[in-house]
Every structure is written in C-alpha cells, then in structure tokens.
Model the fold of this input.
Amino acid sequence: MPEQPRSFRTEAVVLRHSNWGEADRILTLFSREQGKLRVIAKGARKIRSRKAGHLEPFTHITLQLAKSRDLPIITQVETINPFMRLHEDLTLTGYASYVLELLDRFTYDQEGGNQLLFQLLTDTLARLCGPDEIFIVVRYYEMRLLDYLGFRPQLFECANCREPIQPVNQFFSPSAGGAICPKCGNGLPGLWPISLETLKYLRHFQRSNYNQATRANIPADLQKEIETLMQAYFTYLLERGLNTPGFMKKVRS
Done:
C-alpha cells in the first residue's frame, strides 16, 4: 500500500480556539476538504508568533498541517479573508458567532468535507460584511443550513395529513418538522402557533436563491416572530440551548 502523506493542505474557517499548555492553542476549524477538525497551533500565544493573527475566529485561511499521534499541527498558514468588519462591529460579531455556533453544534469532527456547507459559511460571513440587511443574511443561512443537514422543514403542506397549507394561520410542530394545519393541530400538544405572514416569509427563504431572498421587506414584528421560531426549532433539534442569542440580545438592548 502507498504510504500516507505526513502532511496535507486545506482551506478552512476558524470556528473557535482554546489555550493549550504554556504557549499553544487548539483550534476548531471547518474545512472545505475534511469538514470539521481540531488542530494545534504551536507557540500561537507567544508575542512574536507569526501564526496568531491568522487564527482568530471567522478568519478564512489556507494552512499546511503535519500529522502527529494526536492532533494535526499547523506548520504554515495564510489568510484568504480576515472579515475584519466582523471583529470591529459588536453587532456583527454577535451574528457571526451565531452562524459559527450553529455549524459547530450540528457537525462532528472528521465527518468529511462538505463543499455546500463550506461555501454557505464563507458566503454568509462575506454577506455579513456587506450592505445587505443582517436579518435576511442570517435567516437565509439558517434555511440553507437546515436543507444541507437534512432538516428541511415542511412548509407547503401539513406535516401530519399532507394536505396543502391553506391561507390561514397555522401551527408548527418541531417533532414533525413542519407546519400543521388547524384541523390537525386542534388539541395536539407541543405545537407552536405560526402566523400566515411568517409562514409566507419562511417559504420565501426556503425556495429562493440569495438574490431573490434579499427582495423581502419584512416588518419588525414579523422579524421577531420569525427569529424566535427559528431559534426555538434549532434548540429543539440540538436538544440544548444556544449561547449566542443571549449575547445578541444584550448587544441590541
């Protein structure tokens, strides 16, 4: 059998990091080629380290990794895009952290590469740095993330009886993974009310490409309802609460 290479190159986004030992740092990355992986940056916490500036969360990088008995070791790293606005604006920091937390929570180490997820991640970070409305950027990301992870919610027909959804207020069932019509929903436990207008916008995000999604003009009260529903659905799927929504709420207040 051919000998496996002792080093490899990959393109990744830094999700988070933690200190290790006296001067090292362990990083969690989401890479184009291998999905999520944990690596070690030797000496990254030293003042003169040339790697440290490339290894902050949100940063899009290319890096060379050397295999070891434990975690791969970073030997070279270059920045493709630092997404500086995400570090300079506290509101953007919060939303970018939310984007990264969702991906981090739903993925596991060494699952393998996922080109669609990686492209969605880098596109979303770039969009957060641009002129588009943050609410649209984040909701579009959430809906595509659910698609790519296999949790696409059923929004066009009742998730119970499979009849087409009629133009009236509905329910949403996290366990059934979609909208429930009033006829099926009466008396059923664990359902969340969902207004017709909210359902329309969720459908818009689900069936539109990004350029089409940005055309939505959503009133503030509906934005709050949509955001609350989406975060509750993610909490249900993950079976635990998210950290970043609380931070974002403090920043907004």
Observations:
- Residues 1-131 form a domain with the OB fold (Dihydrolipoamide Acetyltransferase, E2P) fold (CATH 2.40.50.140).
- The CA atoms of residues 99 and 138 lie 7 Å apart.
- The mean pLDDT is 92.
